[in-house]
Amino acid sequence: MKKINVGLLFGGRSGEHEVSLNSAFAIASSLDKEKYNVVPIAIAKNGQWFAPIKIEDIKSFSPDNYRGQEVTILPQPNTKLIKLEKYEPLINLDVIFPIIHGTNGEDGTLQGLLEMVDIPYVGAGVAGSAVGMDKVFMKKIFAYNKLPQVNFSYVLRSEIENDISNIINKLINELKFPLFVKPANLGSSVGVSKAKNEAELKKALLEASKYDRKIIIEEGKEVREIEVSVLGNEQPQASIPGEIIPCNEFYDYKAKYIDDKSILEIPAKLDKKTVNELQKLAVDTYLALDCAGLARVDFFICKSTGKIYINEINTLPGFTAISMYPKLWEYTGVSMPQLLDRLISLAFDRYRDKNKNITNYTL
Ligand SMILES: Nc1ncnc2c1ncn2[C@@H]1O[C@H](COP(=O)(O)OP(=O)(O)O)[C@@H](O)[C@H]1O
Ligand SMILES: [Mg+2]
Question: Which domains does the chain have, with CATH numbers?
Answer without folding.
Answer: 4-121 (3.40.50.20), 140-146+222-353 (3.30.470.20), 151-219 (3.30.1490.20)
